């Protein structure tokens, strides 16, 4: 009797979203490491005669130019497809925001594998990035995953389910990153480095796609008491519970938008350069070290999650955001002066809570508008962040190229400064909130008296 019950439990687990999440993240971490190393190898002989650059600086410029174009394509092309897929999902096609992006994931991974095997030009990946974006990309895939996870749980268990999904995502990224560098170095005598790693990545994404088509179950659990608000995070015990307001607090909304755009610009710009920075002297990382470095980034995902769990017991949302921003600002400033691998990990250790601010900002933003406008407001924020990438990706890339010969870490110092500027709007909101609560309390007292 125990064996059939165990098989039934295993089959039930297989029909949930979590296996897809783990397999996809493993495959993506393999792909990220492979892409980073393939671009470095293909940029070795890059030359810019008019710029009078050294061989290493020419390689760095070629790599940053590639990633600038690649990331701009990936960031901008999914906007409209993601919105259309979200609309399909809301109309009952719940698998569409998962199946379609996974097909794009598979095609882009296959494209890089073909680039390595057949020695195709690296520019082929721009076409692969376009296909990936037109399939919805991560912009459609991640909301689809979170939607299925939330629909399959009750309102009481929803926060736990969301946390479980995020922890699995971070843990899979950590494991995949640690393994990816070793797999890249496995050598095929006829095809060279990276083919085994990319073959495994492609296979994992193929399994994800097949799973989402044939096994994934869309299960909706009805709530006896539907939630009236769209708060994303629980409130700290010290704070007064905030209900969704009847109108919009436009000042706070504008300040939160400004803080989010500044912080995402700082983080996105720095991460745009960090992957290239570690491949030059004095670090000059191998594929294994690149995998370990990516694992450190995934570890920040887990430590930020734990930080939210711990800090929310004693501080409010504003303090949480400031802690996360301060964590990133200090770590990325230290990164400006990194000259060895151990210093890199020391700098990353200061970034332990760097992923706290954005989910908390979204939670605060949802509290400033009526529940009926929550989705529109959060979508507007996401679009604003996408368009901000049009500015910060080229800006950080060009600044890095101009400062290669005298201070390569200047972009990290700049990122730290922008992060400090992002803390100012949050501080203003923190100063406004007590005054607003006091004003509302006075109005309430007057109403009671009358």
From TrEMBL:
Topology of the protein relative to the lipid bilayer: Multi-pass membrane protein
GO cellular component, one term: membrane
Main location: membrane
Pfam families documented for this protein: MFS_1 (PF07690)
Localisation per UniProt entry: Membrane
Keywords annotated in UniProt: Membrane, Transmembrane, Transmembrane helix
Organism: Cottoperca gobio (Frogmouth)
InterPro entries per UniProt: MFS (IPR011701), MFS_trans_sf (IPR036259)
Residues passing through the membrane, by range: 67-86, 98-118, 124-146, 167-188, 194-216, 253-279, 291-311, 318-336, 406-431
GO molecular function terms noted in the UniProt entry: transmembrane transporter activity
UniProt record similarity statement: Belongs to the major facilitator superfamily. SLC46A family.
Gene symbol of the encoding locus: slc46a2
Lineage of source species: Eukaryota, Metazoa, Chordata, Craniata, Vertebrata
Protein name: Thymic stromal cotransporter homolog
SUPFAM superfamilies associated with the record: MFS general substrate transporter (SSF103473)
